[in-house]
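tool_call: predict_structure(chain=1)
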Amino acid sequence: MKDLLNYILENIVEGKFSVEEEDQDGFIIYKVTAPADEIGKIIGKGGKTINALKNILKIRAIKENKKIDIQIAEPDLS
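tool_result:
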């Protein structure tokens, strides 16, 4: 699933981004870190893009009997 998310984001985000996968009791959380000016592209107008991403991954997760979530963050520059 991480490969699928990376593939989609490569076609949306210009520049560097990262996806970290965290497993918490069978619940997989994908943490997407991207530059501040690119986060709007990932979220989309009214959250439509991020919701579509979540729906695509949830379809795949159901096939694998897993639960997922996507979280978006700006990189820590400190």
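agent: The radius of gyration is 12 Å. Proceeding to next step.
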